[in-house]
Specification:
Shape: elongated
Order of helices and strands: HHHEEEEEEEEEEEEEEEEEEEEE
Protein name: Outer membrane protein transport protein
Largest sheet: 14 strands, antiparallel, barrel
Distance between the termini: 64 Å
CATH topology: Porin
Pfam families: Toluene_X
Keywords: Cell outer membrane, Membrane, Signal, Transmembrane, Transmembrane beta strand
Radius of gyration: 23 Å
Membrane topology: Multi-pass membrane protein
Number of domains: 1
Family: Belongs to the OmpP1/FadL family.
Number of helices: 3
Strand order of the largest sheet: 1-5-6-7-8-9-10-13-14-17-18-19-20-21
CATH architecture: Beta Barrel
Structural class: mainly beta
Helix content: under 10%
Length: 407
């Protein structure tokens, strides 16, 4: 039973902060252009994409958007023709930005509230991997006050403090049946917090090309006094003391980005971004339970993630003064090494295609729409801890909408 519990608890909810749960839905204009934005001046989303560009924005902004995310994943156990599908649930990553500064000033202030990590999935209570995961609801909300300063007509810098507020709720089955034959269940839930920063520089070259460089720091997020609730047969309840809590620390990785903007004509904008995500900081998961028994011990589970690369391209064409059309796409490498793929993050290398449009509803009011399709490569794996073996296939569909008021 000791081995059973170590396997059960070693991949608690924070495992979901893998590359597959790095949401990257930070602005509708940017999504429509393949998530490019580091080297562009577009709107208030520069607070996240490049704080250094904020001082160069010609107007002030208040904007908000939402990108409903539909995660469609299937699992085919090794040696069978059976296919299990996750339930149709919709996550709702959101963004909100504000940018303000006196007209023609050399500085601007910004505020961003956004969801860079998260996940919502439900595999049900009867699939073959129920002892690894039944359901997961994960949210990480970053709050970022920002200041940006224009050093010259061709160069500006900026940075912001980041406060992360995270929450998680995970359930999975325990292979201990009651008199009716029903499995036991573990429910792990809690709130966490962490701190970091985001800084960038933006400049215009003599050729007209714009360039941005940013670094979003690692955010060490701590979960204190998370609730661990175990529903098990009465004969073994003593091995699962209730109530019980756990604490843990989770390193959310830093990201270094380089972006370029090209302007062949007054109507066309082309962009390229490259992001380097420093997942190698994620070496292991360690959990400290307030109440231990011979079965329920503190855990240390190696992860040894690798750094990941994300390449993005996008374009915008302004058909009229009121209407802009956008297209983009990209490729993202996985951070999850062989042997560590789980139902919380059935991750693999992926490509994505995006489209969008912007329309001026009024002189100071913009409507932006976006759509993204992601294809995550099929990945056949045997998890080294749970021994769950089979092939994951995943597709993601993400529409999005935002409104921006600027003056």
């Amino acid at each position: 039973m000791r081995k059973l519990l170590l396997l059960l608890l070693a991949t608690v909810p924070v495992m979901a902060f893998a590359q597959g749960f790095q949401v990257n839905l930070h602005g509708q204009k940017q999504i429509g252009m393949g998530h490019t934005g580091t080297g562009l001046l577009q709107d208030g989303a520069s607070v996240l994409f490049n704080p250094g560009a904020v001082a160069m924005l010609p107007e002030n902004y208040i904007q908000a958007g939402v990108s409903p995310l539909m995660f469609k994943s299937a699992f085919n156990p090794a040696g069978t023709n059976t296919v299990y599908n996750n339930s149709n649930k919709i996550a709702t990553p959101f963004t909100a930005y504000a940018v303000w500064g006196p007209k023609n000033s050399f500085w601007k202030l910004g505020l961003g509230v956004y969801t860079p990590f998260g996940g919502l999935t439900d595999w049900g209570t009867s699939w073959t991997g129920k002892y690894s995961l039944e359901s997961l609801d994960l949210k990480a909300i970053y709050i970022q006050p920002t200041i940006s300063i224009k050093l010259a007509d061709f160069m500006s810098i900026g940075g912001g403090f980041v406060y992360n507020r995270a929450s998680v709720n995970l359930t999975r089955a325990i292979p201990l049946s009651n008199s009716a034959g029903a499995d036991g269940q573990a429910q792990l839930s809690g709130d966490g917090k962490g701190y970091g920063w985001n800084a960038g520089v933006y400049f215009k070259t003599e050729s007209g090309v714009t360039v941005g460089i940013t670094h979003r720091s690692k955010v060490n997020t701590t979960i204190d006094a998370g609730n661990a609730v175990f529903t098990v047969p009465a004969s073994v309840q003593a091995n699962f003391p209730q109530p019980n809590t756990f604490s843990s620390g989770i390193p959310l990785p830093s990201t270094t980005s380089l972006g370029f903007g090209f302007y062949p004509t007054s109507k066309w904008t082309l962009a390229f971004d490259m992001n380097f995500v420093h997942w190698s900081v994620y070496k292991a998961l360690a959990f400290d339970y307030a109440k231990n028994t011979a079965v329920l011990a503190d855990t240390y589970s190696p992860r040894n993630y690798k750094d990941a690369l994300d390449l993005r391209v996008g374009t915008e064409y302004k058909t009229t003064d009121k209407l802009a059309l956008r297209l983009g796409g990209g490729f993202a490498s996985t951070a999850v090494i062989d042997g560590y793929v789980t139902p919380e993050a059935p991750d693999a290398n992926r490509y994505y295609l995006t489209a969008g449009l912007g329309y001026k509803l009024a002189n100071h009011l913009d409507l932006d729409l976006s759509f993204e399709y992601e294809n995550v490569s099929a990945r056949k794996q045997t998890n080294i801890e749970s021994q769950l073996s089979g092939t994951f296939r995943t597709n993601v569909y993400i529409p999005g909408l935002s409104l921006a008021y600027h003056w």
